């Protein structure tokens, strides 16, 4: 009986040649098994489902100048692409701490990196918001290099259950950690028209903030806005006055901005970033280097202002004078790189 083979279990068949549902994308969910398929998707300028393509890797490594034996912090672990490249620079000596508030993705990333040879001896993953970098430094000591990539991971965008994209139907959640706080759907049940107008304007520079905020409140009196499709339809109705030729593009842009504004709100992203920037000099070792990737103007303004202020006070010895952007080749290969801006700062040797 011991030699009896287990019955072969066939993979579930799906209609058509390419499954459309996120949960059914079996090839792209196992990139190590289907590398050729994943590469085809990437060559087309798309990001495979369940994956994330790291942005500005060369620019980041060129600036951080990581040396074996150093201690580093990836404040926003995500898929772990940046972390992997930084770990390689350590050549087995030193340590990196990786932070993430997403309990779903951070565990997957920890296992993925472990399989590539980077276990707890060189990598510590913590389920912690990056506004609390001071807590990590208390345990680990000061860091020689720090990276923060403020973009939403592609895994979160692609998974309809997370509600980050208007392109697929799913619950309007938008929380980085779905186990804490209130969802975007719940927020829209409670928000006033004035609050929503301000949110759309402040968090996303939405030109149709007044029309959309009024439409949401109007819809709420009939039925709550609970799914990604619900919100998209409300925006479509709000912009119905735009000439038909221009409407499709206008709706697309307003959906992107509105989802961004809600995501920033439910995750308190500006407050979190402000706390991180205030604490950043405290956790950097003398001559320590920090690089930050931002993806919209509100984030970039906060980073620029903080770096300039601390440079003026002599806390940073040098800062980037201009933003660094991904190359044209990278943007062609990864469309999600187009809005990226990178800024950097170097801690002064003595204060």
A few lines on this structure:
With 351 residues, the protein is α/β, with parallel strands linked by helices. 45% of the residues lie in helices and 13% in strands. The longest helix is centred in the C-terminal third of the chain and has 23 residues, at 244-266.
Notes on the protein architecture:
By secondary structure, the protein is α/β, with parallel strands linked by helices. The protein is about 45% helix and about 15% strand. The protein is built from 14 helices and 7 strands. The chain has a 7-stranded mixed beta sheet with strand order 3-2-1-4-5-7-6, sandwiched between helices. Helix 3 (about 80-90) links the parallel strand 1 (about 70-75) and strand 2 (about 95-100). Helix 8 (about 195-205) crosses helix 11 and helix 12 (about 270-285) packs parallel to helix 13. It is globular and about 60 Å long.
From the structure above, extract its key features.
351 residues, 14 helices, single chain, globular, 7-stranded mixed sheet, alpha/beta, 7 strands
Helix content: 40-55%
Overall form: globular
Mean pLDDT: 86
Please state how the strands of the largest beta sheet are arranged side by side: 3-2-1-4-5-7-6
Strand content: 5-15%
Instruction: Report the strand count.
Output: 7
| Largest sheet features | 7 strands, mixed
How are the SSEs placed, and which strands pair?
Layout: H1 35-43, H2 57-64, E1 71-74, H3 81-90, E2 95-100, H4 103-115, E3 123-127, H5 133-140, E4 143-149, H6 154-158, H7 184-190, H8 193-204, H9 209-222, H10 228-238, H11 244-266, H12 269-283, E5 284-294, H13 297-312, E6 316-319, H14 328-333, E7 341-347
Parallel strand pairs: 1-2, 1-4, 2-3, 4-5
Antiparallel strand pairs: 5-7, 6-7
Helix pairs in contact: 8-9, 8-11, 9-10, 10-11, 12-13
